[in-house]
């Protein structure tokens, strides 16, 4: 075995292995596109010294420009992992303390607690989405159909590319309201990572784009990756598409407030280099961005809704353990773009995948990417024992209604505005969403999952494209909370009585209805 530029050259045995990985990527891509319509698809993978790519479809359906491994995509919230790397670089230099108040390093705007007795928001809280900052600060940002499909657009301000986007100091000039006690619960928040980007700028005295380029992208050889829309980006940028009722539609591109939460442009070839560095303890063949101990700290659990679930969040990365193997991940979602990044550090395997137009990709792309990761790493999904006995003697403790906490994002509270209900139907313990959608309201069986813990269950959501999901009940004299991991994110629902949950759902629905009515009354507003 010899090396070239720090990279091993394959001997004949390695060539067979490399060819095997290439074939795995091709078969995976063919299987995905057989069951899922997509305008374009790109995947890159790392397994030890091996690197492979598979691409299919078009970067722009109008011009029929093909996807390549150098096609540039909008990677959405995978950006958050890079902002986390920048913050931890400052921590390594002693310039920030993860346990110190974030406002010690933030002068552009204030973080305003709703309750006077709450402690300060720390940088660690921001990195783990436990700051108490909700994802929706302004309800109006949910109601802009021209900004792209509802499920793909962040609930923050956006403008057409080329128009003025206000600075965070202007956008948050009245402060960010903290609506949950810091450190008490998880609530995904783009505004939290926008604030981390602002902190990087203030501490480093550099614009975030310049800092990331100088300290993260260039050291790792990621020359196609940027936070600003440069000419080299435009030349190879994929267009976002939507598969609507009349066929494929091109989505008008926009810029979104808070670049530190989702603004990066990158290619599959560049993100493979990023994955190599994550697997390499902060270094790849081009350079280094973090010490190995810091990367290990990123990958450790920093918050778990319930340790029995073997899932939670590290510093910028979501983590779930599958059959004893650690898997770190993050997804990205923007109108017309979906992306997934997964690594199994103990197996030295990583996968990145992108699509620029596929219905339901926010659900299926992470699932399919994890399947590929497991295949390359050589381990199966966690095996559940269907023979675990039920314990109907405890069902009375579990039956009742549960809802998301106030800090949960408004889209989640609208989708689960009525919460969930655990009940007994046809002799089985069931869970259903309190929603007018029939297949969700009919419910799903709760199957016992742990012979040593009768309060652990799993529910099969494969009909929704999600797969099996584990649930853990916290019980006093009766169940008080349900903890789960849905879409890679820790979620907790709190038990409540009927009137509280209905009032909470009604309030969320009323906010949406009121906003819609106001929009329709405006002069020149047309219904689409």
By secondary-structure content and strand pairing, the structural class works out as alpha+beta
Write down the Rg: 23 Å
Distance between the termini: 62 Å
Number of helices: 14
Largest sheet: 9 strands, antiparallel
The tally of strands reads: 27
Q: Flag low-confidence runs.
A: 1-16, 499-506, 522-528
Strand content: 25-35%
The helical percent reads: 25-40%
The side-by-side strand order for the widest beta sheet comes to 22-21-20-19-27-26-25-24-23
- The shape is globular
Instruction: Give the averaged pLDDT, no decimals.
Output: 87
Fold topology:
Layout: E1 3-4, E2 7-8, H1 12-35, E3 40-47, E4 50-60, E5 65-66, E6 72-74, H2 79-92, E7 111-113, H3 123-127, E8 158-160, H4 168-171, E9 176-178, H5 190-204, H6 208-217, H7 231-236, E10 241-244, E11 247-250, E12 254-256, E13 265-267, H8 268-279, H9 292-299, E14 311-313, E15 318-322, E16 325-334, E17 337-344, E18 349-355, H10 361-377, H11 395-398, E19 400-403, H12 410-415, E20 420-425, E21 428-433, H13 438-441, E22 444-445, E23 447-448, E24 456-460, E25 468-475, E26 479-486, E27 489-496, H14 498-521
Parallel strand pairs: 7-9
Antiparallel strand pairs: 1-2, 3-4, 3-18, 4-5, 6-13, 8-12, 10-11, 14-15, 15-16, 16-17, 17-18, 19-20, 19-27, 20-21, 21-22, 23-24, 24-25, 25-26, 26-27
